[in-house]
Design brief:
By secondary structure, the chain is of the alpha/beta class. The chain has helices at 17-35, 40-47, 51-63, 129-150, 186-196, 212-223, 283-287, 289-297, 305-324, 328-352, 361-365, 367-381, 385-388, 400-416; strands at residues 67-69, 73-74, 81-82, 85-87, 92-99, 103-109, 115-122, 154-162, 165-167, 172-176, 181-184, 206-211, 233-237, 243-248, 251-252, 356-359, 391-394. It folds into three domains: 17-87, Winged helix-like DNA-binding domain superfamily/Winged helix DNA-binding domain (Arc Repressor Mutant, subunit A), CATH 1.10.10.10; 92-214 and 402-422, ATPase, nucleotide binding domain (Nucleotidyltransferase, domain 5, 2-Layer Sandwich), CATH 3.30.420; 228-397, Nucleotidyltransferase, domain 5, CATH 3.30.420. The strands form five sheets. It has a five-stranded mixed beta sheet with strand order 7-6-5-8-12, sandwiched between helices. A hairpin with a 6-residue loop joins strand 2 (73-74) and strand 3 (81-82). Helix 1 crosses helix 3 (51-63) and helix 8 packs across helix 9. The longest helix is centred in the C-terminal third of the chain and has 25 residues, at 328-352. The radius of gyration is 23 Å and the shape is globular. The structure holds zinc ion.
Length: 423
């Protein structure tokens, strides 16, 4: 079963020459996705391939329109021009669809990371439950395929971002409280939709789904460079509720059913208030935007989780504006949230022992008020070996990495299965 965010099998080729060949093609493509255009010498060295083998493999990839020879550049110090090998952008495309309750954020791009199109397609009010949502999803897929065709490209892979819990191995939505969905075989359904499109998409489109947070994490780590991708990383993000992810051994860790890294629902206060998830005293109840806003405003200002999702920008701006004006209630609540951030970082670090801890999403936008209390909390606990070398890093909290991450994951899915482009 294809899955973009799972590790590629290494050495497990079953002894088949065809498998070994596909595996080597995959390694060349992976190096290009990771590092951009590379010379033949660099590729040979990175992939552990001899010059003759590499030449044949590159010829195969060029025939499939997966790579091209980039414009010649002078080889430094040698005086002889050399043509680096680059991922090809002219024939194949990938897409990412973020399935929000009231909109579908649709991006289409090429394997080399160029974004061809981004659109926010509205889903009308009153669309309740997944069955009612499916026609909108089908329309978005048709639109994505149409954009690919208009540019003379064929769609190879689609990633579906879920606001909630997803089992990417099984291809199922586990639960999305904000969308009102539970247990649904989304991957198979989307395969069916692609097969039924009037313009005819070959049954060869790879389809994967994942929690939105894992896509955002993937984009952040990828942008940090090759070294960062070798490190063990814990990630805390989320656009309106606390979410997280784990990156280890160069891949996203999903756990047994896709829920690894859901730090928002670690119980830190068993007698505390009720959480969205039905339990009491989750991190979400202490650090979640809804609870924070409620404590700062003295009223239930968000209603349902869906309403919170829609109002998140306004609520965050209001909290920041009040804090900037020196509002003592907001400042003390943000300080307290920072302390809980420190407690969460410590708990997660003790379990995962990461080298980097990335804070992103709305929590990162509150950085100037939460970072210091978080660091103070970490200092006050006393360092476990898992904490002492930890690098705590704040991103800017913008939402773009989610879409970049979906296109990247889709490209990685093609890389893991280059035979998809053999048609
Ligand atoms: Zn919870």
């Amino acid at each position: 079963m294809p899955s973009a965010l799972r590790p590629m099998p290494i050495g497990d080729t079953g002894g088949s020459i065809v498998n070994l060949r596909e595996h080597n093609l995959s390694r060349i493509l992976a190096a290009l996705v990771s590092s951009g255009p590379l010379s033949r010498a660099e590729l040979a060295s990175r992939c552990g391939l001899g010059v003759t083998a590499l030449t044949k493999l590159i010829a195969d990839l060029r025939e499939r329109d997966l790579v091209v020879e980039a414009a010649e550049v002078a080889a430094p110090g040698r005086g002889r021009p050399t043509s680096p090998i680059a991922l090809a952008g002219h024939r194949w495309a990938v897409a990412g669809l973020m399935l929000d309750r009231r909109s579908i954020g649709m991006s289409v791009g090429t394997l080399d990371g160029t974004v061809l199109s981004f659109e926010e397609l509205p889903v009308p009010d009153g669309t309740d439950g997944i069955e009612a949502y499916l026609p909108h999803l089908a329309a978005a897929l048709e639109r994505a395929v149409g954009i690919c065709h208009a540019g003379g490209r064929q769609l190879l892979a689609v990633e579906l971002g879920i606001a909630g819990a997803a089992d990417s191995g099984a291809g199922e939505v586990v639960r999305s409280i904000v969308n009102g969905w539970s247990r649904f075989p989304l991957r198979d359904t989307v395969h069916g939709m692609l097969g039924a499109l009037p313009r005819g998409v070959a049954g060869t489109v790879l389809v994967n789904l994942d929690r939105e947070t894992n896509y955002a994490m993937l984009a952040r780590i990828h942008r940090s460079g090759p070294e960062a991708r070798e490190r063990t990383v814990a990630y805390l993000g989320g656009r309106y509720a606390v979410s997280g992810g784990i990156f280890s051994r160069s891949t996203v860790e999903h756990g047994s059913s896709g829920l690894a890294g859901e730090f928002g629902h670690v119980v830190v206060d068993p007698t505390g208030r009720q959480c969205w998830c039905g339990r009491r005293g989750c991190v979400e109840t202490r650090l979640g935007l809804a609870g924070l806003y409620e404590r700062c405003s003295g009223r239930e200002g968000y209603g349902s989780l869906a309403a919170l999702a829609a109002k998140r920008g306004r609520m965050l701006d209001e909290l920041l504006a009040r804090a900037d004006e020196g509002d003592s209630l907001v400042l003390s609540q943000l300080g307290e949230a920072g302390r809980w951030l420190g407690i969460t970082v410590d708990t997660v670090a003790a379990v995962i022992n990461p080298q980097d801890f990335i804070v992103d999403g709305y929590v990162a936008r509150l950085r100037r008020y939460v970072e210091l209390p978080a660091r103070r909390q970490l200092d006050s606990i006393g360092a476990l070996p898992s904490i002492s070398a930890l690098r705590l890093r704040f991103e800017d909290g913008s939402e773009q990495p989610l879409h970049r991450g979906m296109l990247l994951a889709a490209a990685q899915a093609v890389v893991a299965e280059p035979s998809i482009a053999a048609t």
